Amino acid sequence: MKIQVINGPNLGRLGKRQPEVYGSTTYADLVVLCERAAAELGVEVQVRQSDLEGELIGWIHAAADAKEPVILNAGALTHTSIALRDACKELDAGLIELHISNVHAREEFRHHSYLSGIATAVIAGLGVAGYPLALRYFAER
Ligand code: DQA
What we know:
Elements: E1 2-7, H1 19-22, H2 27-41, E2 44-49, H3 53-66, E3 70-73, H4 82-88, E4 95-99, E5 121-124, H5 130-140
Parallel strand pairs: 1-2, 1-3, 3-4, 4-5
Helix pairs in contact: 2-5, 3-4
Bound molecules: 1,3,4-trihydroxy-5-OXO-cyclohexanecarboxylic acid (DQA).
């Protein structure tokens, strides 16, 4: 089984961007963390990041066609993008919405998500440790 890990805008800046909120793990470290976790779980993983909404939507479409589960940290698009929600609605193999920070303990505008209502589950606030947990869920399901 192949699991898609898709990261949205500004997540390529992990480690440099607001480390007090997102931690000191870099994006490159996050990729390695996911690849190691997947290898231990005996599943394949593809980890990608884009700052472009259309590119993210294209990857979601491809995952929907391939019937692959998706772990999605959509960054700020979580709170704004109906287009991303519409694309995610086609993910029959499952969707975990993931946030490194606890969005509910932050600004009001981060409390609403267009994705939560169509996601299998939501993980928020566990830092980058949320990624291997989400991978484990799909690997063991
Ligand atoms: C985030 C939370 C979002 O509100 C924010 O815009 C991000 C990252 C998180 O991982 O905590 O870019 O999705």
